Amino acid sequence: MAESNGRIEAIAEKVEAGERLCFDDGVELFERATLLELSAMADCVRWRLHPEPVVTYVIGRNINYTNVCWVQCSFCAFYRVPGSTEGYLLPKEDIFHKIQELIELGGTEVLLQGGLNPGLKIDYYEDLLTSIKARFPVHLHALSTVEISYISDSSRLSLKDTLKRLKAAGLDSIPGAGAELLVDEVRERVSPLKESASDWLNLMQIAHGLGIPSTATMMYGVGETLAQRIEHLIRIRELQDRTGGFTAFIPWSYQPNGDALRGRGGSGYGYLRTVAVSRIMLDNVQHIQASWLTMGPKIGQLSLQYGVNDFGSTVLEENVVRTAVTAQLMPLDEIRRNIADAGFVPKRRNSRYQLLE
């Protein structure tokens, strides 16, 4: 025990000095550090990067334009296979109506995601993005890497050309969805038809090179080892060293929702450990976003003491990871109150983390 405590103390000294932690340091933190030790180290990194007592949020809305998807990830209960009577493709007018509701709330960000619908090629997406931009002053944080890869393949275009055309049509940034765990051993078990870890990273690198920023995520709690979580974080950190294109990192725990995986939901304790280690390891990613949508508002509030500096989006609706927790979305006033009650100043931002107030 004394040796373990000594190793944690040595890692804490590195964190305080602003030194980068290695893979073994990260595993040691996950396996040995107490929750209080992780909180202290993550908080140290948070205040170094963000010396003001501010926690940001964005007024945004999720819009799932289609649920038709042939990939059939084991942790997803949202998709419907092509030909299903429960499959849908939202008409443009329905999408416009949802965005108008967002605009009336002072919103600025539209998170547009769906499934891999074989009936949609790049002309559909170009028309949709262009139509939205012509009508609304919103930031389109849209299309996961797997959607973009599928658009590229089905339209017989290179990834670079696909991204160029989507950017020209109005794509502003890319959500980090689809990362799951950037460890192929895990991906092959939970989403065998999805792209590889290297494919995900490669698409993000191309996007960053074209001036399209993105977020990065980690879905944990699907039977991976703690070392595999660190492997995921290291791969994000290495790409960020090369591109600087990740604006934020969002770890979230798998939540059972009637899906084929039928796993167990993660605990608040496990989430706080994971988000703290993420903040400590990702020394080159400016923002860590709370995952209150999957963990609940109180754990989201508590995470502000574990390295989190952003409360994310108002969301307004959620269909993909819909559970008893995610069905209870927070109104704007509740987001601001949770931030203020934790001792921070809530401030609204845009999708590029520029303060709007």
From TrEMBL:
The segment(s) forming the Radical SAM core domain are 55-283
Cofactor(s) listed in the protein's UniProt record? [4Fe-4S] cluster
Record PROSITE patterns: RADICAL_SAM (PS51918)
- InterPro entries, per this entry? Aldolase_TIM (IPR013785), CofH/MnqC-like_C (IPR045567), Cyclic_DHFL_synthase_mqnC (IPR022431), Elp3/MiaA/NifB-like_rSAM (IPR006638), F420 (IPR034405), FO_synthase_su2 (IPR020050), rSAM (IPR007197), rSAM_sf (IPR058240)
Record keywords: 4Fe-4S, Iron, Iron-sulfur, Menaquinone biosynthesis, Metal-binding, Oxidoreductase, S-adenosyl-L-methionine
One biological process term in Gene Ontology: menaquinone biosynthetic process
User: Where along this sequence does the record place binding of (3R)-3-methyl-D-ornithine?
Assistant: S144, S291, S313
Pfam families recorded: CofH_C (PF19288), Radical_SAM (PF04055)
Uppermost EC category: oxidoreductase
Question: What positions does the entry give for [4Fe-4S] cluster binding?
Answer: C69, C73, C76
Provide the cofactor note recorded for this chain's UniProt entry: Binds 1 [4Fe-4S] cluster. The cluster is coordinated with 3 cysteines and an exchangeable S-adenosyl-L-methionine.
Q: Which GO terms describe its molecular function?
A: 4 iron, 4 sulfur cluster binding; 7,8-didemethyl-8-hydroxy-5-deazariboflavin synthase activity; iron ion binding; oxidoreductase activity, acting on X-H and Y-H to form an X-Y bond; transferase activity, transferring alkyl or aryl (other than methyl) groups
List the EC numbers from the record: 1.21.98.1
Catalytic activity, reaction form: dehypoxanthine futalosine + S-adenosyl-L-methionine = cyclic dehypoxanthinylfutalosinate + 5'-deoxyadenosine + L-methionine + H(+)
Q: Identify the pathway.
A: Quinol/quinone metabolism; menaquinone biosynthesis
Q: Where does S-adenosyl-L-methionine bind?
A: F75, E180
> Could you tell me which HAMAP family the record lists for this protein?
MqnC
| Protein purpose | Radical SAM enzyme that catalyzes the cyclization of dehypoxanthine futalosine (DHFL) into cyclic dehypoxanthine futalosine (CDHFL), a step in the biosynthesis of menaquinone (MK, vitamin K2).
Q: State the family named in the UniProt similarity comment for this chain.
A: Belongs to the radical SAM superfamily. MqnC family.
The protein, known as? Cyclic dehypoxanthine futalosine synthase
Q: Which organism is it from?
A: Candidatus Methylomirabilis limnetica
